[in-house]
UniProtKB/TrEMBL annotation:
Residues annotated as signal peptide: 1-27
The Blue (type 1) copper domain, residue ranges: 46-145
Entry protein name: Plastocyanin/azurin family copper-binding protein
Keywords attached to this entry: Copper, Metal-binding, Signal
Amino acid sequence: MRRVIRTPLTVALASLAAAGAAAGAVAAVAGATTTARPQKKSVSVNDNFYGPAKLTITKGSTVTWKWPADVGDSHDVKLTKKPSGAKFTFKSPDTGKKVTKGTFQSPPFASGPAKFVVTGFNKPGRYHLICTFHETEMQMDITVKK
């Protein structure tokens, strides 16, 4: 029969090991329930392309499309596909006041500096956007993570 000798050192080490395991379990549970913070991301509106063309963000994020001083042709940003029930807040191109709607389209700009800011993106999923002047070559996708 094997006899276990308990010294103050072995008791202390056993206690530390148990505390470390418990702390790790609590951290894992806490990490599983925390949500990512909303982000602020920028997209450049260039001559016939958005940069980047693919963007991944967290729920509640804000995206700002920016036109440089000389972009060449006129370009805009129009939402064409979204998850059901998605709503967005932005300044109305007509009134300049903040509005919340189920879709959005920026005014066209040929030069800047100009910007169009959209907040919301509260529904996880894929959002597809186009420039209405260059629909085939100027597209982008935004993926909102849960």
